[in-house]
Predict the 3D structure of the following.
Amino acid sequence: MNWVKKHKLPAIEALQYNRHSCIELNNLWQTLHLIFNLVQNHQIDLSLLDEILLKSIMEWLPFSKEEFKNAIHNCNNSSSLDLDYIS
């Protein structure tokens, strides 16, 4: 089955704190703990979310059940978070 094979992880950058990369689990945990404690009681500006409402809503063109099935047919062998097969 395709979904049980090894999956190549995407390239990422290491989290940095005070100009040091947190590449070991202990360093990462300490860094996340410190950052959480620093920002835990800070006020946040929720007006940032108002920008989401300004985005226009995209209208979908009508499509049939058969068109939908044809479009996702190649996805049946791919892993998903929930259903792995659509009939």
About this structure: DSSP finds three helices and two strands in the chain. The chain has a mean pLDDT of 77. The beta strands are 16-17, 20-21.
